[in-house]
Design goal:
Blueprint (H helix, E strand, L loop, with lengths): L16 H14 L12 H8 L3 H13 L3 E4 L3 E4 L4 H8 L2 E3 L8 E10 L3 H6 L8 E10 L2 E11 H4 L11 H9 L3 E12 L2 H7 L6 E11 L4 E10 L3 E3 L3
Antiparallel strand pairs: 1-2, 3-10, 4-5, 5-6, 6-9, 7-8, 8-9
């Protein structure tokens, strides 16, 4: 697919040229010009279309690869990164076993219900005053062991189709494939906590047992909020790895 030189409206404030090229390419991935798993044009083609050197394009793509926006495949080219299990384990699942290889958890949907957002949820997700949310609760298991109890909140008008479909195991992949929303990432906020009665029951812990409470506001590549997630994780035999 051809790409056009950036317009004035696309051009960011003055910054290194490679960063400007990265911003243009990232915006176009966010807009769906290139979909997850699709190969980008060659570095030479991008450089010619944007009027910059191939080295500048390479540096932009190298940074995008480091941030898991694209994936380099030796001898094949550069592809828009998908959300396969390997990427989710390395980039998003920060809970790792104290020994042994990291695993991608299975999931069990506990509930999915529409509702009114709290004031904090409305502010974080930039919702309209009368906008409803979907509130999802699910259990993540590593092997047969319950490890993470998640509460996920998202805009109902935006993602309401999830109510009438089997709930996806890989939610980030579903955002991209079903809704055209490419996830950039988020920043975790972690606190030590004591398990509530509900959390203890789901995770098979004594009430008040120590847990990690991990909150994350997940952002799309166009810098709009997608979901707010609270993950309550057991600490026995597991640790949080910030990467």
């Amino acid at each position: 697919m051809d790409i056009q030189p950036p317009t004035l409206s696309e051009s960011p404030a003055p910054r290194p040229l490679y960063a400007q090229i990265r911003a243009v390419l990232t915006r176009r991935i966010a807009a769906g010009i290139w979909r997850p798993g699709e190969m980008l044009p060659s570095e030479a083609r991008i450089a010619a279309d944007l009027g910059v050197s191939q080295g500048t394009v390479r540096k932009a793509l190298d940074e995008m690869a480091a941030d898991h926006v694209v994936a380099r495949r030796q001898g094949k080219g550069t592809f828009v990164a998908g959300f396969d299990e390997a990427r989710l384990v390395s980039q998003f699942l920060r809970l790792k076993p104290d020994s042994g290889a990291a695993l991608y958890p299975t999931s069990r949907l506990l509930s999915l219900a529409p509702g009114r957002p709290s004031r904090r949820e409305r502010d974080m997700l930039a919702l309209e005053p009368d906008e409803e949310v979907l509130r999802v609760k699910r259990l993540r298991l590593l092997g047969a062991m319950p490890v993470i109890f998640e509460t996920i909140v998202m805009s109902r008008p935006r993602f309401g189709a999830l109510e009438s479909e089997p709930f996806p195991h890989n939610l980030y992949e579903a955002y991209a494939a079903r809704f055209g929303v490419m996830i950039r990432g988020g920043r975790d906020r972690i606190k030590a906590a004591a398990a509530s009665a509900e959390e203890a029951d789901v995770l098979k812990l004594p009430p008040g047992a120590p847990v990690l409470a991990i909150e994350c506001l997940t952002m799309a590549m166009n810098d709009t909020p997608v979901e707010w997630r609270r993950s309550v994780a057991t600490t026995e035999r597991w640790h949080y790895d910030g990467g």
